[in-house]
Amino acid sequence: MSKRITGMRRTLLGLTAAVAAGAVLTAGPAVAAGPATEPDTGRAAGSHAPTQAALDGLVAAGMPGVAAGTRTPQGTWFGTSGYADTEAGRKRTAADHFRAGSITKTFVATVVLQLEAEGKLSLDDSVERRLPGVLKGNGYDGSNITIRQLLNHTSGVFDMVSTPEWNATMNGPAFFEHRYDIKTPQQIVDMALKYPADFAPGKGWKYSNTNFVLAGMIIEKVTGKPYAREVERRIVKPLGLRETTFPGTDPKLPAPHPVGYSKLYAANPGPQIFDATEYRPSWSGATGEIVSTSGDLNRFFAALMQGKLLPRQQMDAMFTTVATGEQYRYGLGLMSRSLSCGVTVWGHDGVVWGSLSGAAATRDGKHALTFNINGDWLAESPPFENMFEGEFCGTKVGAPARG
Question: What gap in Å lies between CA 394 and CA 42, rounded to an integer?
Fold first, then answer.
């Protein structure tokens, strides 16, 4: 089993084995974003056979179903493989709503950067200044951690989904006992702060969902409104993302939606698969609450890349990346992948119970892809990465052996 997918199971809301590895930043300057007009559109739109082959490869690898939508100047395309409901034999559709997990982080980072552009905060503000007393004790000092370090995961703050408390209540059979529980952001942060920091602020990189719970708390402190309402006001409504919601304590998904098949992130998962479609996402909040569709997410990432949501100064900050030790670099709530054909795509991945998603766009915003698997396990990581290679490079990879 790949290190990366083991990391998926352990962290739930992030897609990286570095959550467990705690990779140290490599030497060298951060990569800054180029101008929005740079010619990085990926392959010319045409046959989607490589993308369809990647979809089929995911099902061949043992996933129940997968769907993908693309957006280019030539129009949109939708492809599917497997089933939304394996028992009923129902296929995935372009209208499917799904839990997009950590793709939420890009929306949250965008709002924080908008607030900076409005002069309401600075990325270099300390967490202590914005959330007095929240990051204190057990070796933590919020006055030494900046908002920027939260957004690019260089804060060292322990990941709440790596705690024994999280594992004991939300993984394995305990999921069914606790999936309707409600947690406040402060309760989630307190769970993480029982454990020492992974490293001194700015001295390493490690994906921590706690960082974005704190970012959501900062948005509420600065604006006086819950982070989700600010995302809706500033991004969802202006862009017309009519199928994008923040369910809060509502455990149900809007129709239509696939069944969310899960192995519940047990330490040694067996062959049994469970229906984990319903749960209250207050457990994840600003780090992974969002529900959306492939069409809405493609529209969001295209608009973000094209500078429709942020001024140039904040765009430059978001696209300044740090090394992670993984197959991507990380900016401010944004992942950067350099593909085999020389194209770089920007977006985010997300995994929650019963749902695994990926979204990315070229830097000019002209070519976007979002895909969702209605399952949360994967035998090997290459089939997942093949989605990006297939769509943006036209690389057709044969279906792997079933894992």
Answer: 9
Beta carbons of 34 and 123 less than 8 angstroms apart: no
Query: 215 by DSSP, 3-state: which?
Result: helix
Report the first-to-last Cα separation within the chain, whole angstroms.
Answer: 9
Q: Which of 102, 126, 355, 357 is catalytic?
A: 102
Token code pair at residue 96? 């499917």
* Cα dihedral sign, 49-51-56-57: positive
Residue 102 known to be catalytic: yes
Task: Give tens-digit pLDDT for 276-314.
Answer: 999 999 888 899 999 999 999 999 999 999 999 999 999
Decide if 335 contacts 271 (C-beta within 8 A): no
Sign of CA dihedral 132, 111, 329, 206: positive
pLDDT tens digits along 233-254:
999 999 999 999 999 999 999 9
Contact 260, 186 (CB under 8 A): no
Tokens (6 digits) for 310: 């942020």
Q: Which residues of 68-86 are buried (b: 16+ CB within 10 A; e: fewer)?
A: bbbbbeeeebebbbbbbbb
CA trace torsion 84, 386, 61, 91 (10° rounding): 20
Torsion angle defined by CA atoms of residues 146, 148, 149 and 152, in that order, rounded to the nearest 10 degrees: 170
Contact 180, 280 (CB under 8 A): yes
Cα→Cα distances 143→33, 132, 198, 355, Å: 29, 9, 17, 36
- pLDDT at position 283 is 82
What's the CATH architecture for 44-338+367-392? 3-Layer(aba) Sandwich (3.40)
SS3 content of the chain, % helix, strand, coil (to 5): 35, 15, 50
